[in-house]
């Protein structure tokens, strides 16, 4: 296979009433991917949990489902009103979807597995694609233990393999046990190395999969904090470049009814990646979602011939240049030592306490005592501060060449300091389904932050937010028309 078109799905968490409703919601994404002629489709972490609400019965579960229905865009006024009342009543009764999920998994995990397998295996066969299904809390086929795992299905609907999350997030710990190992999954589109959540933060995991023959690195994420999303994004970029492989990461977004702790919305920007040498502006990104909380379908083409050529011609052949004869034994010895420690790597990496040298106390004469101003009742001036060292200023109005000429040879100085502060656009949320194709639809990079008056910034952000909402409304109407059941199959839109 010379090229492969991949589709990466950014999906919202919902509470569907029936499995058929959930299946039809998934078809929206798969139809868009089909229009892009995608042969590989990737869904996000924990989106597979949405097979559980249709299996839940009872008054409180129905309240939560009605409240979720009211949050959707295409609902009637009555549904919005009744959903609002249901949500208020569910809050008063302390109805908790996570607790209901845990109870169902404890008693009927096999039923959850059957529903998951039926939905995603059937869709893979229906659309004739290799499908990396979203992860969910499911019984491990080997030992029946509940784990956060994702299954890969072939175009015929058959299970090709699965991967369980090994490094659990605190959100996983009460519902799942960690997996055992990472293995490459052979598929018709290539050998897939699958990483869930925090697994991709460790260089060893990506290198292990690459050495097992992985051709594609696929990651799934679910982050309720911006900082966690940024870490996962940085992690997949590093694993991709570490091993010079194609990669993609899919994020769960939107309203959160499932978290264990504070239920902030899921955020993320899904992306399709390639080695920096093969991407615009050497960013490593072929296409990336432009929004943190809206659904989207991203697509890009991976060229395996160019990748093979890169391995041969790159000035940094990281796949072949690692001196394993020197690094291998050292790493093996280090990991073995860490494994034998009672507290794992933390004991090995603990910083030793620094003992201060003993000093003899000498009486201080009254006239030698130094008085300092009372910090609670007065403000320190520069003259009050103790002098730690002398500081010489080399900065003036002279030109750069004059400044450099006046400096001693051993004094390094940067005459053009750069700021590490970056400003990101405010996120906005909509129900639109965006379709982005790389590389021309790549999201714009952040620009250096500028110092502005707070009132000016607030007015500017308000104007941008209004413009974005108007644009979102127009795009949503267009997308609803495109994704309507009666629309033509050959429709296509590039965001």
UniProtKB/TrEMBL annotation:
Q: Kindly provide the name given to this protein in its UniProt entry.
A: CN hydrolase domain-containing protein
InterPro entries the record matches: Aliph_Amidase/BUP, C-N_Hydrolase, C-N_Hydrolase_sf
Task: Name the source organism.
Answer: Caldilineaceae bacterium SB0664_bin_27
Protein's UniProt keywords contain Transcription: no
* GO molecular function terms listed in the Swiss-Prot or TrEMBL record: hydrolase activity, acting on carbon-nitrogen (but not peptide) bonds, in linear amides
Q: Which UniProt keywords apply?
A: Hydrolase
Where is the CN hydrolase domain positioned along the sequence? 4-304
Disordered as annotated region, ranges: 354-381, 429-495
Q: One of this protein's Pfam families, by short name?
A: CN_hydrolase
Stretches of Acidic residues bias are at: 467-478
Compositional bias (Basic and acidic residues) spans? Answer: 357-370
